[in-house]
């Protein structure tokens, strides 16, 4: 320690407390003490925070030795979470107190180095005390740092700062908070430089990122980055490769696309077992609703006092209480969302469980790293996949961890809404010359590419405001364009202080407990609006009864443990990272090769992926069934599109593309827009990380493989911009950007503006700057014209690059155009196993506004994973179904009028076809008689077309004469005047001729039509394309083993699909009760034809009845004689004497006080194989006593004393 030039008292305290430094500390201290900017990247629990702090503490205590420390803030520590900031302040007290005491021993006086926290949870009194007597170390958050920089008192405190520590920098660097913080850091550096003239040392603490150099560039800004992109910063990268105990947990039942309640119960029980096997456990989930739901079920298994929840919608008091209880060991488990990902002090945790996939490698490492969060600890984590696709993703996730792979860091560039807010904040504190402010902003790394035009457009927006019917609004700065100076308007600082920050507002309602007015937490606006007084819901593992709902407030009382509902919160799901999507694709591609080579997939999964056998078997079965259905496994090199009918007669189009939901969302929206423009129908669509689904109507008909060419890499961006304007993402992000840019304030007159009013104001603002967006579509011709406005441009850019990945989509389309990606199109009678997940997609995957109950995907029957029969033929239409539909569709005639109808429908029928249509009955009606009757009435005629002969009706004759101009009639017909007046075009006539024939014929090839009708192949193909464009026919290879493309009437094809599916379903159809009993008699060998004979037959019967307890007298009087022909009791005696069979009572008496007596005729006796005796004894042992929670034990005792009680009586007792 002395080698690091620490004061002896500081070194002595560290050695007494920790012994020896960790690698981040060994390498970090010299760099920090040299005064350079430093980034320390290391796994959680490696001592990064103390590595950053101890050098600063040493400087402060040394200065205190030389002279009294002035009340000046010298170190600012910024944490992304308020709770983490409070923890840091608490954890600083120990070293401060210890070092202070040692200084007192050596120097005879104590040095008072103080640390205080300033966050959104700090009270007004604490803030005032902080201003009067600034601490030497200030712990804060990015948002509070911004507020301090924007207030005069805060700027006075910060003007003396020499060291800035950004902890958990990776948590903010890749979003809006990072851009906001980067500008605040540059404002702080400018402030300290003007006050003291010295540089601001910047220290960043981060989990391992890729590339870590990007984090360093973010930390130091553009002034400290050379032309080659190298940051002037000491990068200490310890690496993230840390030994981890990771594993996958599966329920006993196979995973499905949607989990049943029974499978959830299996997961809860397994979770409870793992929690009880460890001292403390942390259970991570991906949503707040899931956190409350899992907490509720675990409370029933472990006791309400043993588990609680932790998420952002709980009040700070409840969160702190949960953290403290876990730290003290009062909780067995804490169920949390991302609110506990970062290094909040929750004490020692033995186990981390993750329900569902994390969708990123870094998140898994961060969460599992919370277990054994100490030096030398071995983090232990268990992942519970919740669907078959999640199982694949979790397997790929663990593979990435074992290989040391990481997600690539992407820093958003120059968000203009944050820029506008910081310009207002800066201009409201001092006057700025435009060039100087522009250069200051460009010093922050996210704004390095900001152009002067973009800066000027933001200044113009802030100085001119927005012209609305209520006058000019949101003009917040004065712009002296002559002298190029900026100054805040009156009230601008108040708006910047009350409405600043990068975290967007949500529309949550506050939950307040009466009569104490205690803030409990928040619930979603939609949940609050849909609730009624008297409803009971759970929040923070406590049941609350709603008393009344006011504007923005849900007033509640304690529901005394009554069964609650679970509230919901709405939001966008995070997308899977590109690196994890690539890993999932790689797994699929490798398995595709194994399947195509006929190799064992399960063994590869066990050996290569290190998966448990059960998980490997489920993946192998899932992908084998998919491969049989699709002929390939979709990956980023092989895209598969499937189409199938639903129960409503429409069709579903599923594109399997495991690129992640950002690319798929863009692809789905663009495809939806292209379909809309092609067919003039708005379609339902959804996109997940692995697939896109588009619900087609009955009028959509097109070659499936052409969909891959619907979009072009050069034009897809413009098309997607027009598509996203109608998507919910644009409206949401517009409101966020309007709020962040201060165009729509969050507070007015000292009160928070209600969410509905904010929505209205943002809509009014949109109407002012982008009127086409809210205009009636009837008055817009062509595309909407996009105005060149900073907020509109930013909102569109957010949609394209944040919610979606337009660059990634363009790259995928380019590869398709170059042939680098193989594209497969399959028409199936029912969805493939891989389509189940997207068909059951959650609402956050929807690309349109249709609610869940109105989704057309609800009309699709999907198989369960256990339904494996017939999966080999899933992609094949049943030949018998095709024949049946053809026979049913072909017209039948029993009299002349019905035969005339058939000729009207088909227009041209051969002699054989007429014979096939006329039903021969016992009355002797013949084809000749019906034709003669029609010929005599001049209603039909036979045409001669070369060597072919066609019968046709008088009404269709002009059409056929247009098609066959050289045709001659054998008899005279009377053509109706209406038919004579119709002028036929040859192509239209051929199209109508084919329409009538295909409508009654089932699948037909062009060759078949050519042979029957004698038309040129090109004419037939042109007519079929016209029918396809109308949605009348579909093309494909429908007959089994056919090699030629066929065409089929859409309605008939839907019937063929239904019959095929009915046949597949019949393979697993429950048998009748009679068949079941017949099976039982055969299985139990009780039927005469199934009896066995002799001692060997008796032994086989006893193997089947091994361990079964039956009345003693029944064995040799009824059971065995009913199965063994000429049963002889000596055979059983010999088996018992030989030691192969034993007998006895395995089960224990129901009454523990029952008197032991000799066996009676009715005593339950089992005959068993002696080799299995141990197993039977273990299985029949009585259950151990169940440990009840305190509340459950009280209820049990009340029921014991009082007998049956009503709920109200139980509550009173």
Helical fraction: 40-55%
Going by CATH, the homologous superfamily of the largest domain would be P-loop containing nucleotide triphosphate hydrolases
Main beta sheet strand tally, sense and closure: 7 strands, parallel
Quickly name the level 1 CATH class of the largest domain. Alpha Beta
Distance between the first and last residues' Cα: 64 Å
Cα shape: globular
Structural commentary:
- Mean pLDDT is 86; it is low at 868-874.
- The protein is built from 47 helices and 41 strands.
- It is an alpha/beta fold.
- It has 6 domains: 2-237, P-loop containing nucleotide triphosphate hydrolases (Rossmann fold, 3-Layer(aba) Sandwich), CATH 3.40.50; 245-386, P-loop containing nucleotide triphosphate hydrolases (Rossmann fold); 509-558, no CATH class; 634-725 and 784-873, no CATH class; 892-1049, Arc Repressor Mutant, subunit A; 1073-1151 and 1159-1179, no CATH class.
- The protein is globular, with a radius of gyration of 38 Å.
- The chain is 45% helix and 14% strand.
- The strands form 11 sheets. The chain has a 7-stranded parallel beta sheet, sandwiched between helices. It has a 6-stranded parallel beta sheet with strand order 8-13-12-9-11-10, with helices on both faces.
- The longest helix has 26 residues, at 82-107.
